[in-house]
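writing this on my phone so excuse typos. first protein, seq and then structure
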Amino acid sequence: MDMSNFPFTIGDVARLCHLNVSRENQTSEYIVCPFCGRKKMNLHYGKGLYHCPACDAGGSMLKLYAELRGFEGSKGEIVKEIKKELGIKDNSYYRSARQSERTENSVQPQIDFERMKRLDSVYRAFLNKLFLAGVHKPYLYNRGLSDEDIERFGFKSMPLFGYKALCRELLQESICLENAGGFYMDDGEWTINLNPKMTGYMIPVYNYFGFIEGLQIRLDRPFGKTKYLWFSSNGLDHGTSTAAIPFYVKGNRKPDTLVITEGAFKAIIPNKIFGYSIIALPGVNNTREFEKLLPYIRQDYRQVLIAFDADLRVNENVAKAREKLRRMIYEYDIVCSTFEWDLSEGKGLDDFALHWLKNKADAGNEGVTNSICTSIHKTN
């Protein structure tokens, strides 16, 4: 029986059985054998099999679960029990060949590239008329960005006045503002949906195909817990909403691994330090636009690595969101694993990357092994 068709992995089973696993992004891993106590047991993540040459224990992940949990029943009953523990609610025993092949035979979702190009031209022209105020530069420096990074990604401060004048300039340059989030009509003139009392800076959101498809606003003074807003004009005259687009930055390493995190800065900084392609969800539960990209991701990358904030161990919502995302990715037959680090090394992936870089410098480029680099490198 092909273990790769199940909606869970031998890594999931091992964790249910309280075994210490950490390298699901690799083909296999050696762990301490629960039967003989020697670090000889090999877990093969691709095949869903285990074997310990020291005591000759071995078999499928279903057998591993049954023996360690003392469960007696048919294979179907074992699968049902594992799925129940993992919170997988579908009723299938395992994915049918038809389901496994659906991404092979399905047509990729229609992507409106003309719309993307038009929005990209609008937002680039708009940003070119703005500047980054000195008050915002220290914040970006503190996040780990350099002047080169700031220029590359196009961070700009929100304009405080002259909204209609800015729109007139854009129109004179033949920039169409219709159906572009953030712009709307007021008394027959195009204007911008901003409030001069609401200050902050703008983050261009680059989509998977390299276009600026939206803008996010980082507020200087958050509204309660709200630090970020989308540049949108939904509900206004000739206005429109802005989709929650994932932020993507392409890496300069061998393009076989895509890291998934949450928040633009958590993509920019690790990409700069580690060199891997990173896509950042606008929120851990905002996966609607991301799911549309999975057929393309499946073509472009061999595996994905989910790296949500380190507090997921105490934040049940983040932990559930990660599991939901993992199952979604699995449905597209993409190898998916997770990466975790200790909260003392930083909350977000960007914090962890900066912590790793500092320790690497302090150690003279040696002695830093608990990193995303070592987690990914061995799969290349």
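second protein below, same order as before
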Amino acid sequence: MALNRQIQSFSPLEHFCPCQFRIFKTIQDFSPLFNHIAPHIIFSTEEEALFVSALRTIKVKRKQLLEQPGYVSKYRSFVVSGAFRAFILATDGQEHTISLAVDGGWIGDYGSFILQQPATSFVEALEDSTLIQWSYESEQMLLKAIPQFALVMMRRSQQIAVTIQQRVISHLSLSAEQRYEEFARQYPELLLRIPLYIIASYLGMTREFLSKIRNQKAAPKDR
């Protein structure tokens, strides 16, 4: 599906992000993120205070763009609630979804953030959403100040690499129907929250073909 709506202009305030934000400085306000990383890190009192000082919570409206090509990604984003997709726009106007995220996931143009180069993908909110973020500068500071944080981010990078590898293998070795079955098995919640045309884009097929697959599975089998 072509991107037939006008891209919302970015404001120079707060990383060119058309979203409302608030700054909190207590651990309770960031409990979803702390619960997410708790199995991997134990902060000292000083480290916890330093980490909290680097965080902020923002609210993003449905259909707003968090990132877009031409702008450098300045924040790493953890999804507290809501849904997002990252996608690229081909020269023929077709959208190709490259990642999805809901509650407890991460979203962003990682290449842009890590390399501090202009983004190549759009990141769009699919629902009214809440994010916890920290800036690139804060991440560099935390990597030096908190050794366990560096290990957490290394594990996160490894997980992303494995996910990308598995997706490439899936696209090369599985049929369209098998890719849908695998997606439905691994991410049943996304089937309920993500529009069908976006799931089709993520799986590398048309919406019509995905609908055909779903209808065939829903149809009663002859006995």
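Residues 20-146 form a domain with the Jelly Rolls fold (CATH 2.60.120.10). thats all i got for now
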